[in-house]
């Protein structure tokens, strides 16, 4: 049965103005109409290869005054929503090309998804990574079943080498793009969210340069219910999508290619298809600060026991930052699309987030170096129920009077109110105490 919607006209109009040019050596990306039927076909074809991830009511709802449902795409096998588009891309390839194999050149979530699903489909897969790639990423990609080759010191070196190998050996060089096939696969997220959460008012997606998830899902959601508000969220440091929408074409001269913390959110705007669909179907695009992303990661870890990266947390960050007050009291779904946070960043991110959330603070004070003075300080901290994380004493380089000690103390508190209470108690006893700003 053909499902007809007036939103197909919007999709057709959005794509009719796209220039017919592509210099990629990857799978052909014909700029045809992305129909609802294409997304439905993708959902049927990939249903046995990817997880139908839960979209669950969150305890964060009370904190932000709305009914929040989290679409947990980080539970995919490779920890990323990119599997949906990649699997549909690979299964849509001609059989003779599947026998020859595919090659990619990056350490992104896209490459990880290609490595895993190509191996599962018994398609030869090669991944070229620069020598600066973290050993953990190389190991993971090999475990997914890919032949990993380290080459060059930059991503550009790896891409050049991959293209040369593709030409010499008949491999298909793949890089993330906005072909109708890839967008249809990503758009299946929109179908699932609509099915899993009745009476939706809004859905929040990560945006940035790689806005294929936002564009594809918007096409599905707006077809099913034009009144659902679709919102994209990107970083203030890399407002690639907003600048591209304003310019009317993908921005190519950004000096922000794939920041190690933000990942794909900081990449270049990769295609006119996604950009035009976003401009036509997405209701709002907002930008958030890095501080809000970190606090969002902390909230998801505490309330959902979910360890996600910046790309996964950036949707919730719009609520943390108070950028969407119009959603108060509404039913909102947030797509948590990626959970590939590298271990060396995990501790840094959480420690910084606790400080930004006013739950870890540091102060210094000077008092007499006499027996019992230190115990009096500890008594105050115990009475105020502050947990001491670190305490240091300095006697030699104290610039005040002789026979004094400078103490620097790091403590953990419950929240901002508790921190203020502790600060007042310390200033009452030690008027010269210096509170170190975050």
Automatic annotation (TrEMBL):
Residues 362-438 form the ACT domain. SUPFAM superfamilies: Tryptophan synthase beta subunit-like PLP-dependent enzymes. Its cofactor is pyridoxal 5'-phosphate. Keywords: Lyase, Pyridoxal phosphate. The keyword Lyase applies. One of its GO terms (molecular function) is L-serine ammonia-lyase activity. One of its GO terms (biological process) is isoleucine biosynthetic process. Gene3D superfamilies: 3.40.50.1100. Transmembrane segments: none annotated. PROSITE patterns: ACT. Pfam families: PALP. The keyword Ligase does not apply. This is L-serine deaminase. The gene is Srr_1.
């Amino acid at each position: 049965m053909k499902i007809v919607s007036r939103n197909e006209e919007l999709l057709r109009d959005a794509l009719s103005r796209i220039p017919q040019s592509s210099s990629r050596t990857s799978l052909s990306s014909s700029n045809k109409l992305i129909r609802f039927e294409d997304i439905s076909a993708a959902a049927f074809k990939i249903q046995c290869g990817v997880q139908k991830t839960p979209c669950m009511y969150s305890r964060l709802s009370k904190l932000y005054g709305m009914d929040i449902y989290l679409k947990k795409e980080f539970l995919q096998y490779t920890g990323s929503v990119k599997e949906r588009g990649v699997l549909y891309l690979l299964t849509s390839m001609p059989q003779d090309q599947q026998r020859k194999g595919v090659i990619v050149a990056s350490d992104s979530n896209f490459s990880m998804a290609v490595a895993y699903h190509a191996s599962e489909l018994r398609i030869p897969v090669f991944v070229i990574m620069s020598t600066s790639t973290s050993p953990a990423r190389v190991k993971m990609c090999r475990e997914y079943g890919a032949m990993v080759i380290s080459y060059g010191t930059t991503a550009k070196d790896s891409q050049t080498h991959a293209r040369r190998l593709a030409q010499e050996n008949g491999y298909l060089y793949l890089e993330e793009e906005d072909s109708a096939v890839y967008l249809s696969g990503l758009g299946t997220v929109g179908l699932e969210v609509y099915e899993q959460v009745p009476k939706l008012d809004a859905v929040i997606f990560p945006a940035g340069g790689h806005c294929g998830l936002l564009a594809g899902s918007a096409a599905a959601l707006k077809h099913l219910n034009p009144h659902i508000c679709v919102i994209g969220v990107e970083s203030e440091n890399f407002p690639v999508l907003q600048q591209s929408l304003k310019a009317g074409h993908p921005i190519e001269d950004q000096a922000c290619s794939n920041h190690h913390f933000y990942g794909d959110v900081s990449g270049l705007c990769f295609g006119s298809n996604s950009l035009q669909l976003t401009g036509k179907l997405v209701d709002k695009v907002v930008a958030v600060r890095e501080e809000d992303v970190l606090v969002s990661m902390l909230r998801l870890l505490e309330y959902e026991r979910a360890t996600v990266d910046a790309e996964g947390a950036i949707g919730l960050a719009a609520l943390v930052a108070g950028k969407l007050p119009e959603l108060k009291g509404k039913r909102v779904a947030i797509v948590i699309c990626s959970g590939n946070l590298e271990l060396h960043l995990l501790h840094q991110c959480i420690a910084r987030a606790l400080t930004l959330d006013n739950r870890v603070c540091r102060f210094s004070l000077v008092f007499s170096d006499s027996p019992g003075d230190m115990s009096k300080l500890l008594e105050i901290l115990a009475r105020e129920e502050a947990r001491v994380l670190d305490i240091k004493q300095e006697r030699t380089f104290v610039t005040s009077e002789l026979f004094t000690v400078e103490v620097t103390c790091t403590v953990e508190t419950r929240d901002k109110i508790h921190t203020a209470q502790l600060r007042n108690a310390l200033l009452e006893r030690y008027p010269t105490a210096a509170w170190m700003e975050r």
